[in-house]
């Protein structure tokens, strides 16, 4: 796929991957074998009818291709960009056994971008018209990230009135505060949200469930409630010096820049913290986002420090490749022991320890083991910790009868998404812990189906 | 939905005002100790402010601020009839209030307003409230009248002696602690050095001390970790675990450093705003 050149894009926040032209898309679509038993669909968490939509692309019937995508996925423009396709649809593609799999994600993005402005009920439902609104029945969706928006989209297109309650001042959840605009332009998120508003979904911003409104109050106003409040408090390393000025969670660093538009400071008021030598701890997508953002904010050097090796990095392959092309330095097999301050009590360096891989652990990956006597110090004036998140306590503490598991996430019936409180459903990171956009979207859709079955008696 | 300003009472001209906002959902759920996150306009930064009072029947909340940077300067430029673009809350854990006897509530600067809501909560719970408030001089003293409506005792100090006791609030507090009356709890809200000094003093007397912390926040809803503070050697998040903590266990030196993390940018932003205000 055409991309902005690496030495240009590492100075701007415009989207890196420029997307297919129609010609690119037709070439790529022509490679699909239309397998009788499409393994790609099995690899998709929401079962997008992949061979069918690719056939429609071949026939240049992009409207039909978009309709087919939308029947399974409420957010194709988003998922085409951020799904880890190499582990899902493309990872299962038969062509991938000997050569390159069909670039399903890129085709999905192409179709969605072409048709995002044409969203209508029929594209959501796959029938000719939107279901008639059933009077007097409504659903509250708490949060406005991928799970909640997917649930909202399904319910709204099947005849339910939907109200979305979002805690922040802008809808989109992690798509807005977490994923940088060079990977997912904010316009794409806003288009998906306005498409839902066209379906009659009402947004309530600055509304924190558990604080501004309680679940019990939402149940009095609505027939069902879906909880998709996403991830919570960032995890830290737990090493000395971690609260020094200059050490940030990836969530804070990215929220300032993405939600607060700190890359446009002082035109926008939220400031970002600048570093010359930036260290990022962790190796998931969020770590890649933070590292690539730091380059764009003007850092001289950005190091991703990881205690295992390239092979164990959980980030999408494309993000790792893009980061490397842009100039991110990968320091593998190192583990931070402490952060040290300068005379002004600001971060000056990190003490690292070399690691080597030992026996596999419970995750199946080889366990990193410290190399004795290998400690060394590295200069850094901005450290970003990207180790994932814990559950957010606000809603859970305020809703005592909601059953939680030992990690503090909500327990649900896996088939329906219903929680221990009748007519209250949940999905996404608040159920599974930090996961992907598409898994959250799938959970939201599954709950939407259950809610429609219960309230409307239909699918 | 933007939140309308229904009343604005200047307390220190150009620097501190008391603003009453029409926010019925927040007012209905707000309890002493809670705060709100505000964003003045589309380009604005989210900032936390403690709720100083509520009127649940009328659906109103009161905030009090000190103009320190651009966001509070933008707030000070607003008037009744204007609306604040985003107001989110009530956030944080409410103050733990139980009937236990005499509670001394110490306030400094704009912290007096935040302390007022907590003190009122203790009064309504049946505790005897001793309020101690301090400022540099008489004209910088806030909320004397509001506190006098319910406080069983109201003690005042000014640095320059222009009103009440000449000296620090901690001197008045020490007198009370040295007296015969058993003290159930001390609450302190104000500048970091004041809260640290109060906590240092009460530690020697073994009196439970609650402080309301004001670290930098970004989302205020338990997502980013900007507001982390060290309490009893552990990292806690002021927005969801606080903002009130045991004053004897808070690392105030760290809090002070972290409050200065963005000082250069805050000044840059404020100067740019002043220039644009001058140039019209």
Largest inter-chain contact set:
A-B, 43 and 43 residues
Q: Describe the biggest sheet of chain B?
A: 7 strands, antiparallel
The portion of residues forming beta strands of chain A comes to 15-25%
Helical fraction of chain A = 25-40%
Major β-sheet annotation of chain A: 5 strands, parallel
Poorly predicted ranges of chain B: none
| The CATH topology of the largest domain in chain A | FAD/NAD(P)-binding domain
Query: Strand arrangement, largest sheet of chain B?
Result: 6-1-2-5-4-3-7
Per CATH, which architecture of the largest domain in chain A? 3-Layer(bba) Sandwich
**CATH class group of the largest domain in chain A:** Alpha Beta
Class of secondary structure makeup of chain B: alpha/beta
How many E-type strands of chain B? 16
Shape of chain A: globular
Write the layout of secondary structure elements.
The complex is a heterodimer of chains A (459) and B (280).
Chain A lengths: L5 H4 L12 H8 L9 H4 L7 H9 L3 H11 L3 H7 L6 H4 L11 H12 L5 H5 L12 E5 L3 H12 L3 E5 L8 H4 L8 H13 L3 E3 L10 H7 L2 E4 L19 E3 H9 L18 E5 L3 H12 L4 E6 L10 H10 L2 E4 L1 E8 L5 E14 L5 E5 L5 E4 L2 E4 L7 H6 L25 E3 L2 H4 L4 H20 L3
Parallel strand pairs in A: 1-2, 1-4, 2-3, 4-14, 5-13, 6-7, 6-13, 7-8
Antiparallel strand pairs in A: 9-10, 10-11, 10-12
Chain B lengths: L2 E10 L3 E7 L1 H6 L5 E5 L7 E9 L4 E7 L3 H7 L6 E2 L1 E6 L10 E7 L2 H14 L3 E8 L8 H5 L4 E6 L6 E2 L2 H10 L4 E7 L2 H14 L3 E4 L15 E4 L2 E4 H4 L2 E3 L5 H8 L3 H16 L2
